[in-house]
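Title: Prediction job returns without error message
Component: structure pipeline
Severity: low
Priority: P3
Assignee: unassigned

Description:
Job completed but the reporter wants confirmation the result is attached to the right record. Sequence as submitted:
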Amino acid sequence: MVELKHIKVGEDKFKISDDEVARRELKITKIDEDVIQVQEEVHGIIAAIGGVSSVNIKKEELKEIIKIAKEEFGWTDLC
């Protein structure tokens, strides 16, 4: 079994209204030898439950995800 290691890739704050600021974190976790999980947590927004989920990834965050997958998780065949 793989030891779960959560690595924070990105963090943002953005204004929703005059008195509310949301916080966003993007994390990557190695689930198995060939599986990673990218998780986006957004705090401060009332969310509706639906059947679709998505993760917003910035270009710099994607570069960091690829770097982590190679260096931390040993995925040497990424290009």
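Comment from assignee: result matches the submitted record. DSSP finds one helix and three strands in the chain.
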